[in-house]
Write a structure and sequence with these properties.
Thrombin, subunit H, six-stranded antiparallel beta barrel, alpha+beta, 52% strand, single chain
């Protein structure tokens, strides 16, 4: 089992090394102690067509995500992050069970 965990740690390191950027996390349980780390940010677009035929309404939304190694920060729902100069709040955290978690973010307007 340790071989698998070691291999996953190597993959995570490679992903973070290649695709990450600087982020600041303000933990939900200690806003006064920000965590400066690196994370993989994606602001994917979600497009949905509502209705039928020519009267379709196209709805577009943003779904920003931030991936972090659990060893860098144990992500929690309610954490706030600053990435690319924008502030977001984690509305969900999805751990992968291999030491990496994805935070589902929403803009805070701050």
């Amino acid at each position: 089992m340790n071989d698998w965990l070691d291999a996953m740690a190597d993959v995570q390191s490679a992903v973070v090394d290649e695709f990450s950027e600087d982020v600041v996390v303000y933990p939900v349980d200690d806003r006064w102690t920000p965590v400066r780390t690196r994370g993989v940010f994606d602001d994917e677009a979600v497009v949905a067509a509502l209705g039928e035929g020519a009267a379709d309404v196209i709805y577009t939304s943003s779904c920003p995500l931030l991936g972090l190694r659990d060893s860098d920060h144990a992500a929690k729902r309610g954490d706030e992050v600053v990435v690319r100069g924008k502030r977001f709040r984690a509305v969900d955290v999805r751990p992968d069970g291999q030491g990496f978690s994805v935070m589902v973010l929403e803009a805070t307007g701050a």
